[in-house]
Amino acid sequence: MPREIITLQVGQCGNQIGTEFWKQLCLEHGIDAHNGVLEDYAGESVSDRKDVFFYQADDEHYVPRALLIDLEPRVINGIRTRYKNLYNPENIFVSPTGGGAGNNWASGYRQGQDHEEQLLDMIDREAEGSDSLEGFTLCHSIAGGTGSGLGSYLLEMLNDKFPRKLIQTYSVFPNQQDLSDVVVEPYNSMLTLKRLTVNVDSVVVLDNTALNRIATDRLHLENPTFAQVNSLVSTVMAASTSTLRFPGYMNNDLVGLIASLIPVPRCHFLMTGYTPLTLYEGDRAGESQVRKTSVLDVMRRLLQPQNLMVSVPVKKGCYMSILNVIQGEVDPSQVHKSLQRIRERKLASFIGWGPASIQVALARRSPYLPQSNRVSGLMLANHTSIYTLFARALNQYDKLRKRNAFLDNYRSESMFENGLDEFDSSREVVHDLMEEYKAAEYDDYVSRVMGTESPNTTEIAR
Amino acid sequence: MLQEVIYSLAGFTGDVVFEDPAPSASEAAGLKLADGVPILEKSERATITRVLKLGSAARDLQYLRDVGCDSLYLSSVFESAGAIIEKFQEDLLDIERRAGLELLTGATSLELALRSWEAILPEASDCMRGAFERKLSGPDVLHYIQARSSRSLSNPSILRMYRLLINGCEATMRVQLLSWLLYGDIIDPNDEFFIEVAGDGGKAPQVREERLPAWMESKNAHDLLYAGQALAEMRQRKHEIKIDFGQHVDAVVAAGSEFAMAIAVSRLKNRVSEEVGTLVPPGSIKELLSSIRDYPLLGRGLLWDLFIEEVDKSLNIEAGVRIAEELGFENVTFSSFNGVTSPCLSPPWPLSEVVTSEQEQLYADVFTMLLSVRKAGKHVNSAWLAIHRHGLLLCRQRSGKQQVFSLYYVGLLFALISFARFWPEIRRLHDKTEHRLQLLFQALRARMGILLENLMFYFQIDVVESYMSGLSSQLEESSDSFPMAVKLHKKAIIGVYTECLVGSRVISSCLVQILEQVESFTSFVSQRERSWKYDEEPDLGSMLEGLEKLERDFMRSSGLLFELLSSVKSVEGSSNLARLILRLDWNGMYSKLTLSSKK
């Protein structure tokens, strides 16, 4: 009885990172990514749980529990050509008009409404095909039209139709350093951020700014391609699900994994770090930039800002929680020594209003994938400084909104015909979110958010 | 006259020397010289009286030998004493011959001829009579004789006599021990041997502590019991046993001291264990131990999750047991009794020597504790989802409310309708109790979650995983030595049991209290969840009061647990506990808590 997870990949970015993710999963489970057939070298003796993310078709081929959704056919056609027999053709949705969302959140959202029945049918069919569905994972970008607009619509729908199932997203945040081709990115981001705040249980933030920085600074790629950056994302996605797919003794389910990371409902935006990074070229792992790894080395690197996949000032603020997924042959005593060293050197500061520490999950590695490093690690962390990311988005949004620039396309959609209240509401939600993260930095967080003194909870903080 | 005395010494009394009293169960024999024998001078009379004492002793020994007793051990000693009497009789025959040839004349020369018996016979008689009157039996007879012999170390002839008696006793023990080892049965009509083999009752052989000789420790007796049982199993399997039992049994029987006995028994046991090891299929110990580690101890995969889920769903522990069976663990099954679930390992012989029934009980205790912590952790995670979702709902309602107010300015009628529709929600949002309740739920969930998560990490990774992987590598190093494997496993399970704190009553009860508080918390959440789901209006005030009390109780209990763990850590210097404490108190929350409670 597996805890199945259904992956929805929405829009160009969502489908691209989703495809990289499935490619990685196929490699790790010994499945041929082109046709879903188990490779000859992949025996049954490996106690992995393929059924969390795959199911077996009648002909015993492994099929990803994935829904590929886009409003224009270009990316999905590419996937169809490359991975002809991997995905279930019934799980692919391309808008019949094929015109895309034109980087317009409202258009994506409206098209979601238009195709609600068809989309819901696909999700229902996949959910009913699961024995014990744990939840949904959605991959998308928050800046464009389809990933953000249609993605937002899907999030609301999932929340409504599956109230007891977890919803996690891997959300790609736009690069805020470079000028974007999409001028309305701040609008799309703001409207999506509201859904990510109120409709999602956990958001894994993948900041394009940081991803590009890692590709250039850490991997020394002069002009990183989309495929290379997506490979970084897929590494993180695969590592964060490794304890679910190669079960150990703990963290075998998604809820167990994220419950410890999210002490406050609204503060569920997680940042990630991974080390040592290698790029996969074809089916082979590229050369690692790190020659020698140890648990301490990996855990120390994970706390370094340059290894984080989010561009935020982590030196300021504090961690609400950290979960390090350590992969490889690890002696538990090494973990302890590393934790001691990190604590002595005060490499990570935590909130003072509740219990918090670095949690460690030891994960097994795929036996099929050659590893160039003895130990590798993924950090999932909830840090208060993530609000700076929202602050930047809010700032950019305010600049545009002040001038009411580029709003015509939105007004032309039925949702905004009667006004732009939704924009204001989204802004308010994001602003409140920022304030909550800021408040969480203080020891008297509880009384701050309560607005009154709460004797029992503040007692501990003091 | 001399002939009369010699005949009486040989047991044929007459008028000159008569028997008074005749030997009986309560009184030793006495040979006496009749009064008024005219040819004897006073000094001769005294000499003959001394000589007759030897005859009395011999007579008494003969009596005891003829009468015999219920004890196999004492009887065999009497038999050995018979050899002394026979030797005495031979000497008397020689004396009689010499007297006939007039080579021996007078009482003094007779006394001189019997001088070598002067010390032996009375001592032997006294010793036998003492054992007889004390009604000694079993190896206690041996102990008694050994004790007496140690008091006569200065006299070699007495020592030789005692050695003879001891040999007789040891022979019985040797026969019984050999019989136990070679046939799995004991010739023990009078229930004297310390191992009891039941007849047809089907009862397993057992050590009878009350029959243990003083120089044998209970552990040695159990080792001998084990050796016999293991050998019986091997015989049943038609295994050709290549052990020189005679040598080992001789060493055990003749040990003579606790220390020597312990060494001899341990050698025998190890030899038997090595022989047993030849019947163990290669790799089966590791397979068994990894099954135990993965399933009942660590619940690898989904075992515990499914187990808990099924039990929660059907409120029936058998459902969980069924799930475990469906998952098909070869070496492990589960049973439940009175609501307590235990793994049934019961490996087949000879693996049952690695995981004995006592160790199985230790595993069961550890499993019960681990499962209850895991169950509580799972319930807290489920509570997280409910609380989290409600928190998000409140956020959604707040943003919905803002829209409602905006719409109010756009169209009064629509706003009125909406306002009416959302009024209960808005009222609830403004209810501070509701807000406070939600925060309390979040805070308590986080505290409980982190405590349980860390406890699970400690139990599973720090303790179980460390001990079991240590055991695994030690087994590899011990290069298939079965006795070593048995020993290493025993050490490991005791380590796991101790470090999992199952044996500590204070810590266990504190932990049980915490787990009960977690269950109370999850039932609070379920209650609240029902009211969210069905839009009921529960008494928030009393719920808040209850939750606040629960929070106080939990803080107290978890603080106490932290203190207890810290004190155990400092007393025992456990590095594993140090790891747990470091993780729990990373940001100093528990230290502050215990400090404030002390103030």
From TrEMBL, chain A:
It comes from the Eukaryota. GO terms for molecular function: GTP binding. One of its GO terms (cellular component) is microtubule. Residues 250-395 form the Tubulin/FtsZ 2-layer sandwich domain. It holds the Pfam family Tubulin_C. SUPFAM superfamilies: Tubulin C-terminal domain-like, Tubulin nucleotide-binding domain-like. It is found in: Cytoplasm, Cytoskeleton, Microtubule organizing center. Keywords: Cytoplasm, Cytoskeleton, GTP-binding, Microtubule, Nucleotide-binding. GO terms for biological process: cytoplasmic microtubule organization; microtubule nucleation. Residues 50-248 form the Tubulin/FtsZ GTPase domain. Its main location: cytoplasm. Tubulin is the major constituent of microtubules, protein filaments consisting of alpha- and beta-tubulin heterodimers. Gamma-tubulin is a key component of the gamma-tubulin ring complex (gTuRC) which mediates microtubule nucleation. The gTuRC regulates the minus-end nucleation of alpha-beta tubulin heterodimers that grow into microtubule protafilaments, a critical step in centrosome duplication and spindle formation. Belongs to the tubulin family. This is Tubulin gamma chain.
TrEMBL record, chain B:
Residues 2-242 form the Gamma tubulin complex component protein N-terminal domain. The keyword Phosphoprotein does not apply. InterPro entries: GCP, GCP_C, GCP_C_sf, GCP_N. One of its GO terms (biological process) is microtubule nucleation. Keywords: Cytoplasm, Cytoskeleton, Membrane, Microtubule, Transmembrane, Transmembrane helix. It is found in: Cytoplasm, Cytoskeleton, Microtubule organizing center. Its main location: cytoplasm. The chain crosses the membrane at residues 405-423. It holds the Pfam family GCP_C_terminal. Residues 347-590 form the Gamma tubulin complex component C-terminal domain. One of its GO terms (cellular component) is gamma-tubulin complex. GO terms for molecular function: gamma-tubulin binding; microtubule minus-end binding. Belongs to the TUBGCP family. PANTHER family: GAMMA TUBULIN COMPLEX PROTEIN, GAMMA-TUBULIN COMPLEX COMPONENT 4. This is Spindle pole body component. It comes from Rhodosorus marinus.
